[in-house]
Design brief:
Family: Belongs to the peptidase S45 family.
Subunit structure: Heterodimer of an alpha subunit and a beta subunit processed from the same precursor.
Largest sheet: 11 strands, mixed
Distance between the termini: 65 Å
Protein name: Penicillin amidase
Structural class: alpha+beta
Keywords: Calcium, Hydrolase, Metal-binding, Zymogen
Number of strands: 29
Number of helices: 24
GO molecular function: hydrolase activity, acting on carbon-nitrogen (but not peptide) bonds, in linear amides; metal ion binding
């Protein structure tokens, strides 16, 4: 019997080992070139690519076009699948790669016709930028062609990668627009439903314009109205119960930060910039580190976006710059009046026919699905759930929305010049924070801002005024900007940066609450003679200052109960060190309690508005309309019975019932808290490859980063919420880049067989700063003219 099994198992084992050997060898052949010489007809002089032990390249060449070629070569060899996903996602072409699962997503984005707009952007390029874009494209295609074996993702999908086109770089830019903007003006639609349903006095209380946690660079006044009476709103009469399926915290789970200290407050007399851009983190990381020097030009260092030929955030030795999402109002709804058969819409010039464009969405097997795109003069007509018909005017539709003007940041000599480059760059409108070697600091909006008329952009615009609602780009001299504030510090964190007339130019969308901005501002205010390590420490500040009042309130509630589970929780809160550390139970208790309470209150408000005013708010929309912090906190102080659920007699009963739902899964058999209540278990993160979910666990573990119990939460500088986290940390002083600090999740390469796939990830997770500049030459290859 044993010999029989041996005859079967031995050949099977050999086959398995051979299969693994083949996969390993193919994997090695799919990795990027590290050494040797490459010949190319697309460059004018030799280009040297040196890599350090982390795989970070430094490129030296004679011309900027040659540098672009090398950058494209590197991006293709290490990140081509990522680039491919980005261009396809923006163009609505994912289905051709991954199949029918992406059809609905493709229909959504195909309606914006972004490939057509990318082609138009190429046609509008000045010759110097077109030269760089062409060189980059040539580099991508040569780098892809010179991989001995195609990237591993294409093995799994059974497909071959398609060549890169110049317009694809603009599609990559549009993919960032999609991530950072509300392309369907959905927040405007929700806000419109809410404001129509809620009486004015009630609306001011439930969705306040400002919060007591705001920390803008300019002054503002805040006062939350008094709690509305039972005559205005009475939730206790509503017999429907909130399902508590909506996590309101997901809508405030945003987290990009940047800040700058003026030279007057630094140890060197030069300004220092810090930037951590937060995005949904996956494998590979959004950014690709790089430094380069073209001829005698100033050296550049920072992060590039695979698919684009420039540094997005970094330093040119004279100026450093970084971005956070502005959350301005960059999309609007145009309310359409249709004719009887819905084939035309009314304009100031009379009826105009709806344009129909049929788009073919291709599938891997060659079949296609037809998608009908309806177009108006103001933008696509998109489906909605409230019975109206709207066109969506999104800033990305504008001819000036994408360009390569950010390339000019390479030549900016100071903050004043960098401000103009930011204003003229074709990027999703961002908070651009700058610092220069002369000690200056500044903030402005980077990207296109339209010149708007004075109307309420929080509600759909009537067709009568739509033609004049967006006129042309705001004059650069009129862009919101703050240069060298008296405080010697600038900070932004997705909340309102300015107020008054400057805020009116930006508009108001789903801003962050502001607690994060406040903590960064207060940290900066303590610094004198600051250096890069001081600013790095702010990036990893996980003190839960915002949550402390919630913890105090919860302890007082739990002390009113004699139940063992409540006493155990109160003890954990008293022992909490006040930080969002992975080992802390107190952070889990207070954060989850706050989230559940706010979510429950606002879902019930939505239900009440639907009953009383037919608001047609979904639970998700009701939860999204407000951050809820100030409103619910005031309710906790006033404890009005008419805001309680039907049949609940007291706020104590209500709050403890909410709390019990949270802790029940965390309780041990003796009704005390188990280690499942530790913050690292509650808020742990797996940084995954886009394809890993479809693979067996053994392969999934090969592709994904190790699951780590990370510190951090929302409403503090170290934002970490689920898969959202800092996609990079940059701290740099222009002209002193050798002192600059950096880290990022994941590694440089997107190929799991590469030695650079994971290296550097632990430094990011453990708050270890790495040098921003390449740390030596471990590998080097040369591209030479042919």
């Amino acid at each position: 019997m044993n010999k029989f099994l041996l005859r079967i198992l031995l050949p099977l084992t050999v086959v398995i080992l051979l299969a693994f050997a083949v996969i390993f060898i193919a994997g090695q052949l799919s990795t990027a070139r590290l050494d040797g010489t490459v010949d190319s007809t697309h460059i004018s002089a030799p280009v040297v690519v040196s890599r350090d032990s982390y795989g970070v390249p430094h490129i030296t060449g004679e011309s900027r076009a040659d540098i672009a070629f090398a950058m494209g070569y590197l991006h293709a060899q290490e990140r081509f699948f990522q680039m491919d996903l980005l261009r396809r996602a923006a163009a609505g072409e994912l289905s051709q790669l991954v199949g029918e699962m992406a059809i609905d997503r493709d229909k959504r984005y195909r309606s914006h016709l972004l490939r057509e707009k990318a082609l138009a952007a190429v046609d509008a390029l000045p010759s110097n930028h077109l030269n760089i874009a062409s060189a980059y494209t040539n580099g991508v295609n040569q780098g892809l062609a010179e991989l001995t074996v195609r990237p591993p993702e294409y093995w799994l999908l059974g497909q071959a990668p398609k060549p890169w086109l110049i317009e694809d770089s603009f599609l990559v830019s549009f993919s960032m627009w999609i991530q950072l903007n509300d392309e369907e003006a959905s927040f405007d639609r929700i806000r419109h439903k809410f404001s129509n349903a809620a009486p004015t006095a009630l609306h001011a209380f439930l969705a306040p314009t400002f919060s007591e946690w705001e920390a803008p660079l300019t002054a503002y006044e805040y006062q939350l109205p008094a709690t509305p009476s039972a005559e205005l709103i009475d939730l206790s009469l509503n017999t429907e119960l909130a399902e508590q399926t909506i996590d309101v915290e997901q809508f405030s789970a945003i987290g990009s930060n940047n800040w700058a200290i003026a030279g007057s407050r630094s140890s060197t007399g030069k300004a220092i910039l810090a930037n951590d851009m937060h995005l949904g983190i996956q494998v590979p990381n959004t950014w690709y580190r790089v430094s380069f020097q073209a001829g005698e030009a100033t050296p550049m260092v920072g992060v590039s976006l695979p698919g684009a030929p420039l540094i997005v955030a970094g330093s040119n030795s004279m100026v450093a710059w970084g971005f956070t999402n502005s959350y301005g109002d960059w999309s609007d709804l145009i309310s359409l009046e249709l004719n009887e058969d819905s084939t035309a819409y009314r304009t100031n010039a009379g009826w105009e026919a709806i344009q129909i464009q049929i788009e073919d969405i291709l599938l891997p097997d060659g079949r296609s699905v037809q998608h009908e795109v309806q177009l108006s003069r103001w933008g696509p007509i998109l489906a909605n759930n409230d019975g109206g018909t709207y066109a969506t005017r999104w800033l990305a539709h504008e001819a000036q929305a994408v360009n390569l003007n950010l390339l000019e940041m390479e030549h900016a000599a100071n903050v004043h010049e960098a401000k103009i480059v930011c204003n003229q760059s074709g990027i999703p409108p961002q908070n651009c924070t700058m610092a220069d070697s002369e000690g200056n600091i500044g903030w402005t909006i980077g990207g296109y801002i339209p010149q708007r008329i004075a109307i309420d952009y929080g509600v759909p615009i009537a067709w009568q005024v739509a033609d004049i609602s967006w006129d042309q780009q705001l004059n650069i001299a009129d862009y919101p900007a703050i240069i060298n504030p008296e405080s010697g510090q600038i900070w932004t964190a997705n909340a309102k940066v300015v107020t008054g007339a400057m805020l009116e130019k930006i508009g108001s969308d789903a801003y962050d609450l502001g607690a994060r901005s406040m903590q960064i501002r207060d940290n900066l205010s303590t610094l004198e003679n600051a250096d890069e390590f001081d600013l790095f420490a702010i990036a990893y500040d996980d003190r839960a200052l915002f949550y402390q009042r919630w913890a105090d309130h919860l302890i007082s509630r739990l002390d009113e109960s004699s139940e063992l589970r409540h006493q155990s929780a109160a003890l954990a809160l008293r022992n909490w060190n006040g930080r969002a550390e992975a080992s802390q139970m107190g952070m889990s208790l207070v954060a989850e309690y706050r989230t559940a309470l706010i979510s429950d209150v606002y879902q019930r408000i939505g239900q009440w508005l639907n009953t009383e005013f037919n608001a047609k708010l979904t639970e998700r929309e009701a939860a999204r309309i407000s951050r809820g912090e100030d409103t619910v906190w005031q309710l906790l102080q006033d404890q009005p019975p008419h805001f309680l659920p039907y049949g609940v007699s007291s706020w104590k009963e209500y709050e403890l019932a909410i709390f019990d739902e949270i802790i029940t899964p965390w309780l041990a058999e003796n009704d005390t808290l188990s280690t499942r209540a530790e913050w690292g278990s509650v808020n742990g993160v797996t940084i995954s490859h886009p394809l890993s979910a479809a693979l067996p666990s053994v392969l999934r573990n090969f592709l994904d980063m190790e699951r780590l119990p990370l510190n951090g939460a929302t409403n503090m500088p170290l934002v970490q919420y689920g898969s959202l986290g800092a996609s990079e940390h940059i701290i740099v002083t222009p002209s002193a880049e050798s002192q600059g600090l950096y880290n990022m999740p994941g590694g440089q390469s997107g190929n799991p067989f590469s030695p650079f796939y994971r290296i550097g990830h632990t430094a990011w997770a453990s708050a270890q700063p790495l040098p921003i500049l390449s740390t030596g030459t471990d590998y080097q290859f040369t591209i030479q003219p042919k």
